[in-house]
Amino acid sequence: MKRYLFPGALVVLALVYPLLVAGSPVWERLGALVLLGAIGASAWNIVGGYAGQVSVGHSVFFGFGAYSAVVVYTHLGWPPIAGAPLGMVLSVLLAAIIGVPTLRLAGHYFSMATIAVAELVRVLSSTSEFLGGAQGLGGPAMPRTVFDLSFISATPFYYIFLAVLAFLLGLTWWIERGRMGFYLRAIKDSERAARSLGVSSGRYKLYAYMLSGAFTSLAGSLYLCMFGFVDPESGFGILISVKMVVMAALGGAGVLFGPLVGALILVPLEELSNSYLGGRGAGLTFVVYGAIIVIIARFLPSGLLSLFERRPARPPAAKNQPASGHAD
Amino acid sequence: MLIDARNVTKAFGAFRAVDDASVSVEEGDILGLIGPNGAGKSTFFNCLTGDLPVTSGSVSFAGADVTRLPPEARAKLGLARTFQVPLTFESMSVLDNATIGALLRHHTAREARAKARDVLQRVGLGHVTDAPARSLGTPGRKRLEIARALASEPKALLLDEAMAGLTPTEVRDAIELVRRIHGDGITIVIVEHIMEVIVSLAQRVVVFHQGREIARGTPREVTSDPKVIEAYLGRRKVRHA
């Protein structure tokens, strides 16, 4: 029972958080932003963490989601959230188109290819009249119906994001325990060995990429619903991709709760630096992320959560020596 | 004929690592592939498994032409292998490593895990199932690779220098293990440097030298073949005073 105590307490805390900070817009907003960051990073984690295919161009899916949401409003007059399924479908198709040629590339080459695609889309989007060009597009200024999700408080977003994150983590947990989870980890460790055991690595990497793209797109749509505005930089900018990677890597890539832990640390940090440094802080964000990348790579290659998982690293011999006198 | 490789050539640019090699393996055989360093054994081996596409020639397995099939498709047909330098899944437990293999023939992770446990027991890793694979030494890793391959329930098991880096005692244990696997009805192809292994295990031996087959026969026949001795030790020079 004891092992459920801590997670249980966290779930309760997550559920009542808005009540605890009620009346403080800054804290309400921060809660929602942490969850949104966690959704994006958790989506990235499927392909980047579990399958080990480090995409640094996931902003392409995020942007697809954000633009899909705003485009259905601008051009069709629909509520932005109605664009979310469209963005997800388009992102799955896009993932297939990008993934088939690029997932054959190993390691860094895959990462570079994803950056190239995202940058290409960013530049194209800034020249597209349909997408509002470099100025971007805005959602409904005044709520028409409740479906426009134009809430004054961030608390409704908090609960929407919490539900989406719970669903995504549940799905990831289910995948992790099944065939696909085993196969993705095998591909990450040694694709050649995985293939020798009958793992269709190309197919599984593509599945992971498509699924990851779909949920990253959903994060983009949710972002638009909350902020009501997207331009090429906030949709397709490389910082969006880097944030997902850094959050997941900080908490633990390929670990279920890794991205959430990363978001819990990085999002408040970013909000803090933005509010204290104002406009001058924008450039500093890159410096902070750069420093974090260096620190993770040097000291914590498996992320923060690996600090709490010392047990599997213990040599197995202890188990065969009943005389050793350890209580556990 | 379980494995039938015909006129296989593998060229890297102008260099022919394997030159027109034809080798066939009957079901239930233990075939040894030997030869000095750089003879093309491993290249040929990788052509059989699909890790390397052949430049020309054909490979068939269990009656199907697999020349153009990727390694995973050959594994599904029942061709399993180990690697010269062990490629165990380092971040996973010993049990999970074997489970990956077992998932090829079992639908759920639960069934696959049961099969994996069974195989680990059989190869002598039953006491370390929960240990991380990275905690094993070389002999353990080699064993784990064999367990993983067996968990995929293969018709043929291809061992690429499975004994390299083992102590003489470990080699004897490994030979014993391969015998038991063969006893379970699995056809074995073994690439090996260590003569003792080949002599005590293989029924038939093919000797490679500079990408070509130079001899074949029983271990006794090939080890006394002058061409084989020359390939390994060089030509005897007779000096006149």
Automatic annotation (TrEMBL), chain A:
Superkingdom to which the source organism belongs: Bacteria
Record-level GO cellular component terms: plasma membrane
InterPro entries with a match to the protein in the record: ABC_transp_permease, LivM-like
Location (main, coarse): membrane
Transmembrane segments: 33-52, 59-78, 84-103, 157-175, 206-230, 242-266, 286-308
Keyword Cell membrane found: yes
Pfam families the record matches: BPD_transp_2 (PF02653)
Gene Ontology molecular function terms on file: branched-chain amino acid transmembrane transporter activity
Record-given protein name: Amino acid ABC transporter permease
Automatic annotation (TrEMBL), chain B:
CDD domains, sorted: ABC_Mj1267_LivG_branched
Pfam family, one: ABC_tran
Record-annotated ABC transporter domain positions: 3-235
Membrane-spanning residues: none
Classification via SMART domains: AAA
Keywords associated with the record: ATP-binding, Nucleotide-binding, Transport
Gene Ontology CC annotation, any one: plasma membrane
Biological processes, Gene Ontology terms: D-alanine transmembrane transport; L-alanine transport; L-isoleucine import across plasma membrane; L-valine import across plasma membrane
GO molecular function: ATP binding; ATP hydrolysis activity; L-isoleucine transmembrane transporter activity; L-phenylalanine transmembrane transporter activity; L-valine transmembrane transporter activity
InterPro entries associated with the record: AAA+_ATPase, ABC_AA/LPS_Transport, ABC_transporter-like_ATP-bd, BCA_ABC_TP_C, P-loop_NTPase
Annotated protein name in UniProt: ABC transporter ATP-binding protein
Biological source species: Reyranella soli
